[in-house]
Specification:
Layout: E1 15-17, E2 20-23, E3 26-29, H1 31-38, H2 46-58, H3 66-69, H4 71-74, H5 87-101, E4 115-121, E5 125-134, E6 137-147, H6 157-171, H7 173-178, E7 181-184, H8 189-193, H9 200-209, E8 214-217, H10 225-233, H11 235-238, E9 245-254, E10 257-265, E11 271-278, H12 284-301, E12 306-311, H13 314-320, H14 329-342, E13 347-352, H15 359-369, E14 379-384, H16 405-413, H17 420-430, E15 433-436, E16 439-442, E17 450-452, H18 455-467, H19 476-486, E18 488-489, H20 493-503, H21 505-509, E19 532-538, E20 550-556, E21 562-567, H22 572-587, E22 592-595, H23 599-602, H24 604-612, E23 616-619, H25 629-646, H26 653-665
Parallel strand pairs: 4-7, 7-8, 9-12, 11-14, 12-13, 17-18, 19-22, 22-23
Antiparallel strand pairs: 1-2, 2-3, 4-5, 5-6, 9-10, 10-11, 15-16, 16-17, 19-20, 20-21
């Protein structure tokens, strides 16, 4: 490294660096730059305003709320008309001169020191001041501010405060990453940012701020003159008075569902909107009570002590004010719950208002009760799974014993039933079972340990394997084999599987009709795995996603492995692409392929493709599909399983196809045993 001695200074206690004055006191503004602004006369033309704006920008870190104060001056740069220096511009100019006459000294924080952040917002600008405490005095570190864009000016006050915090975290990232930052504000922003139900920009800001160590505290006494000026600049919106909060609530119940709309407004104008969907059935009156109770809980979370609640339900308003008698036993529980929650506040007033004055809350309630809730960025969307009032629980008696009880007792304590025949049976059976971690397992001959299930657990396993995501609505024998393969056992497994299949509506509705052949069947054998493939086209199906309405099917004669792909058109090029991608690249070049006499299979280019790879192409006899019986059998399997899974949703066959294939490939086949 080379240094120029003429540009180096060593052993000094202070001096000029990057346009600022550094000393043991901290970072000070350059007196020459400050004096240049103080000595300036009021601008008389646009170029002088541009010069003034440039000088102010260089000293912006020393100027509290610069964006708000300089708004009249900077506005002159955007005007296309003739230049006019107004009285507002002169007042702002004099404020800057006064501030730069005694500019604040900015300090640097020590390692591990907690820093304080003060926020201020207005209708046109946001500002922040980073402060540290030393010997009981508050010393500024940095002042930042910026003008709000047109869209940002329409934000709610709470969103503007969050935007100011977000802007400070991005601009002063180095301080946020290395220190704990205490945000001093009387705005209830902390409780809002920590809600998991946020949506839109508030959720994005909450996630971005979560990487920093930020705490929120109420604003205390001001211990610095520069900070007092910073706070007083925006006092109308910088303070949050402790007076009554206003709340509008409404409930809605219809055939699609039920929900509530809540609008909570603080005395300073901060507004919270909540669209609440109920996960349980309610009447209209119950929905109105739920909206009122949830709104009161929200107000309590925000720290409100006095609440004036407006509702368009005259019945609810009069009943909670003891003007009407509550006769319904269920609504009486809501009444008592309201009286209990009323003790959380100093004062709660519930008043009736016409629906025309409660339109916004009514819209939120209708939005929540619809099938598809909205995604408004400034609205909190969430679901209330259970009612606000305690529910009566009815205990369900469960069987105290099952077929496993005697076996478990014998393994643990060698206890036997009193009946000699039953005792002999238990001793014989217990040799095949093991008790591991309190669970009974059965030892098989060629299978791992099978977990033993009681009847409720067995019903659940049967339902999941037969109808679940991997279910294929298979027959009783195959269903029992899949249960054993999954690692479960109970004595009546085969009987229960047969009874379950008999009761399955889809299996009975789309089951195969057994037709015995008049002649002896002849099987077509393959010499080795993936040597002989049968290929066929299924369709047309109902139009599915991607304009697909055909299905190309290929099955291996040896392993019965099936490959399928939905197609929009059945051209020779698509069939050739399917054979290359789904057969050759996965299983190698086959010995032969069997197909019918369709145009896509008779195509010259497709046959040249097979001939170049040495694949023999065999065609079935005309009007004799039995010649490619394995492909026809695969078609029947796919069609049957698709019918059982789809029901009436015929257009979803393309989306359900992977699940059908998965179920088929995971099912033991008797033909391959």
């Amino acid at each position: 490294m080379r240094l120029n001695p003429d540009k180096c200074v060593f052993g000094v206690s202070g001096g000029k660096f990057l346009g600022f004055m550094l000393s043991s006191r901290g970072i000070e503004a350059n007196p020459n730059k400050c004096q240049a602004i103080i000595d300036m006369r009021s601008p008389s033309k646009l170029k002088e305003v541009q010069k003034l704006a440039g000088r102010l920008t260089g000293l912006s870190r020393f100027l509290p709320c610069m964006a708000e104060t300089s708004k009249p001056i900077l506005g002159l740069l955007k005007k296309a008309n003739r230049f006019q220096w107004t009285e507002e511009c002169e007042i702002s100019f004099q404020i800057f001169k006064k501030c730069l006459g005694t500019p604040p000294v900015l300090t640097k924080p020590t390692s591990g020191q907690e820093l304080m952040l003060y926020l201020a917002v207005s209708g046109k600008a946001i500002s922040a001041a980073l402060i540290r405490e030393h010997d009981g005095q508050q010393q500024p570190i940095y002042f930042i501010s910026r003008v709000l864009q047109d869209a940002e000016r329409r934000y709610q006050l709470l969103e503007k405060v969050a935007l100011a915090l977000m802007y400070a975290a991005r601009r002063l990232c180095q301080y946020f990453q290395s220190h704990t930052v205490v945000v001093r504000t009387n705005c209830p922003i902390a409780k809002v940012l920590r809600k998991p139900e946020l949506a839109g920009r508030m959720m994005a800001w909450s996630v971005e701020l979560s990487e920093f160590d930020i705490r929120f505290e109420p604003r205390g006494a001001i211990k610095a003159q520069s900070l007092a000026e910073f706070i007083n600049e925006l006092s109308p919106l910088g303070q949050f008075e402790d007076t009554a909060w206003t709340m509008h609530v409404d409930g809605s119940s219809n055939q699609q569902g039920s929900g509530a709309g809540i609008i909570l407004e603080s005395p300073s104008g901060i507004t919270l909107e909540q669209s609440l969907r109920f996960g349980f059935k309610t009447s209209n009156n119950q929905a109105e009570y739920e909206a009122l109770l949830v709104g009161m809980r929200l107000a309590a979370e925000m720290g409100a002590t006095k609440v004036v609640c407006w509702t368009d339900s005259k019945v609810v308003a009069e009943k909670v004010n003891d003007n009407f008698q509550v006769k319904d036993a269920h609504l009486l529980k809501y009444y008592h719950m309201f009286k209990a929650m009323k003790g959380l506040f100093h004062e709660v007033q519930v008043r009736h208002t016409p629906r025309c004055n409660n339109e916004r809350a009514d819209q939120l309630a209708r939005l929540a009760s619809s099938r598809k809730p909205g995604q408004l960025r400034s609205t909190i969307h969430l679901e209330l799974p259970t009612s606000s009032i305690p529910q009566e629980c009815i205990p369900i008696e469960r069987p105290t014993s099952s077929w496993m009880t005697n076996i478990i007792n014998y393994i643990i304590s060698s206890s036997e039933p009193s009946d000699p025949l039953e005792a002999k049976k238990v001793r014989t059976q217990a040799a095949r079972y093991s008790l591991i971690a309190g669970e009974l397992y059965r030892r098989g001959f060629s299978t791992p340990l099978l977990k033993c299930l009681d009847q409720p657990q067995a019903d659940y396993v049967l339902r999941e394997i037969h109808e679940g995501i991997c279910g294929s609505h298979s027959g009783a024998r195959t269903l029992a084999a899949k249960v054993l393969r999954a690692g479960y056992y109970w004595p009546t497994l085969k009987t229960d599987c047969a009874e379950y299949v008999k009761k399955c509506k889809q299996c009975q509705q789309h089951g195969n009709l057994i037709h015995a052949s008049a002649e002896q069947l002849h099987s077509v054998s393959a010499p080795w795995l993936f040597a002989l493939w049968g290929i066929d086209i299924l369709g047309p199906f109902p139009l599915a996603k991607g304009q697909c309405k055909f299905l190309v099917v290929a099955v291996d004669y040896f392993t019965k492995w099936i490959e399928v792909e939905p197609l929009a058109t059945i051209t020779a090029a698509n069939v050739q692409k399917f054979v290359w991608k789904n057969i050759i690249t996965w299983f190698g070049i086959p010995y032969a392929i069997i197909s019918d006499n369709g145009l896509q299979f008779m195509d010259k280019k497709f046959n040249n493709f097979l001939e170049n790879l040495g694949i023999r192409h065999r065609f079935t006899s005309v009007e004799h599909p039995q010649s490619n019986g394995q492909a026809e059998a695969a078609n029947k399997v796919l069609l049957t399983k698709l019918k059982k899974r789809l029901g009436t949703a015929k257009g979803a066959w393309a989306e359900e196809l992977p699940k059908v294939l998965w179920a088929y490939r995971c099912t033991p086949q008797s033909s391959t045993k």
